[in-house]
């Protein structure tokens, strides 16, 4: 196996285990200095570096989406960069809580029970055979439309308001 194919395998594995992998799986593909550039909208625990932060992101996603799955379609590698085009799918079974730049609850999308499937492109920088940096392009609008977030009904807005209040309370208790 070449160094490029090793990097591709590790990067693809890093994306696909977000839905079902164990903590040990994440540690096996994550550099100690790993930074997720998408964590700005995620809970405080996701904003750090290394396997702890990546594991926190996986748990955050899993708390909102059952049956979370990434299906890779195309992968391109050049130098230390691997780009993976995927479809992410799942079912919205828990509140999806989004945070602001100060790590405070910004929005909470109440569970709808609906399924979704949206394309994403994940960019993964590699170092020492492990993932050290991640950022993504996602179809958040498509996901929101499939899950009934966009356009919201008045009833759904009330559910989201209730979910946000609960998330703010839980966040205060956690701090």
Largest sheet: 5 strands, mixed
Any idea what the shape is? Answer: globular
Elements, N to C (H/E): HHEHEEEEEEHH
State the end-to-end CA separation.
46 Å
Structural class: alpha+beta
Organism: Gordonia insulae
EC number: 5.5.1.23
GO biological process, one term: polyketide metabolic process
GO molecular function, one term: isomerase activity
How is this structure best described in words?
The protein has 175 residues and is of the alpha+beta class. The protein has one domain: Nuclear Transport Factor 2, Chain: A (Roll). It contains 5 helices and 7 strands; from the N terminus they run H-H-E-H-E-E-E-E-E-E-H-H. It has helices spanning 3-16, 23-29, 50-64, 140-147, 154-174; strands at 30-36, 65-78, 81-92, 96-99, 105-109, 115-127, 130-138. The strands form 2 sheets. It has a 5-stranded mixed β-sheet with strand order 1-7-6-3-2. Strand 4 and strand 5 form a beta hairpin.
Give the structure's gist in a few sentences.
The protein has a single domain (3-174), classed as Nuclear Transport Factor 2, Chain: A, CATH 3.10.450.50. Helix content is 37%, strand content 37%.
């Amino acid at each position: 196996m070449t160094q490029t194919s090793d990097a591709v395998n590790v990067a693809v594995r890093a994306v696909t285990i977000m839905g079902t992998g164990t903590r040990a799986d994440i540690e096996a593909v994550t550099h100690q200095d790993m930074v997720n550039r998408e964590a700005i909208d995620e809970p405080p625990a996701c904003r750090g570096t290394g396997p702890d932060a990546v594991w926190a992101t996986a748990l955050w996603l899993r708390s909102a989406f059952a049956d979370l799955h990434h299906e890779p379609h195309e992968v391109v590698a050049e130098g230390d960069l691997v780009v993976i085009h995927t479809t992410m799918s799942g079912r919205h079974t828990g509140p999806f809580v989004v945070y602001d730049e100060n790590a405070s609850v910004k929005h909470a999308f109440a569970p709808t029970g609906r399924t979704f499937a949206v394309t994403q492109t994940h960019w993964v920088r590699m170092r020492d055979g492990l993932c050290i940096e991640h950022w993504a392009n996602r179809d958040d609008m498509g996901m929101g439309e499939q899950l009934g977030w966009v356009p919201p009904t008045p009833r759904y807005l009330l559910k989201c308001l209730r979910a946000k209040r609960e998330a703010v309370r839980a966040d205060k208790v956690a701090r």
